[in-house]
Amino acid sequence: MSLSLSRPDLIRRQNLINGEWTDARDAGRYPVHNPADDAVLAEVPDSTAVDARAATDAASRALPTWRDRLPRERAEVLRRWHALILANADDLGKLISLEQGKPLAEGRGEVAYGASYVDWFASEATRVYGDIIPQQHPGKRMTAVKEPVGVVAAITPWNFPLAMIARKIAPALAVGCTVVAKPAEDTPLTALALADLAVEAGVPPGVLNVITASRTRGIDAVADWLADARVRKVTFTGSTAVGIHLARESAGTLKKLSLELGGNAPFIVFDDADLASAVTGLMASKFRNGGQTCVCPNRVYVQAGVYDAFAELLARRVAALHVAPASDTNAQIGPMINRRAVEKIERHVVDAMSQGARALTGGAPLPSLGAHYFAPTVLTEVTDNMLVSQEETFGPVVPLFRFETEEEVIRRANDTPFGLAAYFYTQDMRRAQRMARRLEAGVIGMNEGAVSSEAAPFGGVKASGYGREGSKYGLDDYLSIKYVCQGDLD
What we know:
7-stranded mixed sheet, about 500 residues, Aldehyde Dehydrogenase, Chain A, domain 2, 6-stranded mixed sheet
């Protein structure tokens, strides 16, 4: 697939600061690669703390005017942005597939998914309600009002380069915050295109600022935001290690944080489950983006009575998946994001097989396609001491664990520091209610593998972070509550 868009102007190669497209102050640049063949797609600014500070300056100056806009006026801007995203869905889907690697159908699907958050929060902008507190004293009136927290720093991952940044920017703008954003090093082009459409939609200068940076320089840029007291909130999606670092380093200015961090999701199949439905649900949740999502099932527990039958059904479906670059319209699994990702997947598979696991299908890289491809894999006879149980694989590998009882599988499923998502299949509704209550995760799929929705709260517990994105609850992290006590009324 060539870098040929209907609107070539959407391919931005500069930072957006204060409504202007600008290079890094020291003119540094770095290349963005296509993971399918490692070809250079474009070069973008390699920003530093100086650029991050310029973005904060712009956001801070723009805050009072944007905050004072009527909610319906902010909503109208977001609706225009939403319409432009949909109107340019094909180009945006191409950019996603080019720089991230996912099949084109998934790239287009991500555009629709990301746009749904912009539409949702455009509507929610006019629904930020406060409260009149029941009178406690004569002559006093007490109210609680919600106000925008201020300048927000949004730091996003590479696996969903449009959806993740859209669902952070949209609620912030909806309630009257201004934003400084840094997309992932590997996938900045989609974020810059999204920002370009926001400007076209009428987002005023300084309200949304986007800078790009390589890994090393990006750390310095983000550090400036962490130290700057004008940045009142940080929203981050990424690894738990980085999330902990952000929480620690932002403590000096007591910022509000929302952190969507790593996962180690269990997927549980009981012996009374509809096996065909369970396989379909697992395919949908596990192989989305080639297994490179934080809610992908990482540990699949199957009750002993149906273990072999389930493994056979699953292996047949997985073996039929078509692995190819996004240029192949029939592709179902694309390349992994980089060589490091492939090396981690291979390390997990080799470790499991060296300890007795067996590959029913796959089990190795696919060098004939390129350096970043790994065969969709099903492993049987996996045990809890293997790396695939203890670490998030982030790839197209399904390890199957055998279990006997409900109590056992709940204990094993919860035996992890993480708690982002969990899935289970059963036709026993009493058991279903017990499982939903006892599984330690922020997102539960009950006889369902596709759980994401703009109308639902998304986020984790334990080492998977805190705060929620999406739904009516997704505004709360961008708001502060002010209590107003009015006296001398009688």
